[in-house]
Every structure is written in structure tokens, then in C-alpha cells.
Specification:
It is a single chain. Helices cover 48% and strands 13% of the residues. The protein is built from six helices and four strands, in the order αααβααβββα. Helix 1 packs antiparallel against helix 2. A four-stranded mixed beta sheet has the order 2-1-4-3.
């Protein structure tokens, strides 16, 4: 509990320092209350206005975590774009098959985020290292680091209507 409180105070202190140029009176008032309530706050200085700007701690950077998050965001973005392109009802959850390769562990750890933000049905989400055979009648998505996703939209999308739409788009482009 004490560690969580210390983390919360540290984050709030830094956030107030960053917001101070935009909201000086509000942040100063909150900071003064925080300073008075926190043991050791008497060593923080007289005012937030003259406090040091927070410095980035290079030791806290995690390039692998940033790359994993970029991959996950890209995959979710592609799923959302495919949903929009094929006119899937916004609230409708869809099935997904993901070949994660070397990122399978990370994808399994983040499956709740993938299902929530991508509106993927958790019961119909398949995460595998690789696929022996590519699914038929599925939208294929290729993500970063070789991650592949397949959205079997049969039954959710009128295929005849979609073919007509694509033919019309092709004719307009010609």
C-alpha cells in the first residue's frame, strides 16, 4: 500500500509540474495540499512555480515494450479498419485468427486488450504461433514483425454486395 501511495504521489507531482504552465492556479493549489499531506513534502520547495521541471529517466525506457505496444496498436488499427471497410456493425464482435510468430506470448498476455479494442469475440479468438493453412473467405491482415491476422467475416458480410461494391470501385478507378 505504501509503495502504491508513493507511486501515486510521484506521478501526481510530475503531472502537476507539467500542467502548471497551462493551469497555474489550480495546479499550485493541488500541489500545496499534496505537499502538506505527504511526509517529506516539506522538502519540496516553497512553490510549484519555482520547482524543477521533471527529467526523463533513461533507465525507465523499455524499447521492447514500446515495440510490442506499437505492434498491438497496429494490429488493432488494422482490425478496426477492416471492420469499417466491410461495414461490420460497430457493436458486433467478430472472430479472429492470429498467427503471432515470435510475439505469440505477448499477444496472449494482451488478448483482453485485443478483444476489447478490436471488438473481437473472445470465444472466437484463436492465437497460434503459425498456421498450417490460411483460412478461406477471411480478410487477411499483415501486421508488424510478421504477425498475421485473419477475420472470417462470412455470415457477417454480404459477399455478393461486397463483390458488387468492389467491382463498382474498380470500374470507377479505370
Amino acid at each position: 500500500r505504501a509503495t502504491a501511495q508513493a507511486t501515486l504521489v510521484s506521478v501526481l507531482d510530475r503531472a502537476l509540474r507539467l500542467l502548471h504552465p497551462y493551469m497555474p492556479f489550480v495546479t499550485e493549489e493541488i500541489w500545496q495540499h499534496l505537499k502538506a499531506a505527504w511526509p517529506g513534502g516539506q522538502f519540496w520547495g516553497e512553490s510549484l512555480m519555482i520547482s524543477r521541471w521533471p527529467n526523463a529517466d533513461e533507465a525507465q525506457f523499455d524499447d521492447e515494450a514500446e515495440a510490442d505496444m506499437e505492434l498491438l496498436m497496429d494490429l488493432i488499427r488494422q482490425i478496426r479498419n477492416a471492420r469499417a471497410e466491410f461495414d461490420v456493425t460497430p457493436g458486433k464482435k467478430i472472430p479472429a485468427i492470429v498467427a503471432g510468430g515470435s510475439k505469440l506470448g505477448m499477444l496472449k498476455a494482451q488478448d483482453r486488450l485485443l478483444t476489447f479494442l478490436g471488438k473481437v469475440d473472445a470465444d472466437q479468438l484463436t492465437l497460434q504461433r503459425s498456421l498450417e493453412e490460411k483460412p478461406r473467405q477471411a480478410v487477411a491482415l499483415v501486421g508488424l514483425e510478421g504477425v498475421e491476422a485473419y477475420l472470417p467475416l462470412a455470415g457477417l458480410v454480404d459477399l455478393e454486395q461486397e463483390v458488387a461494391r468492389l467491382n463498382k470501385s474498380l470500374a470507377a478507378a479505370s
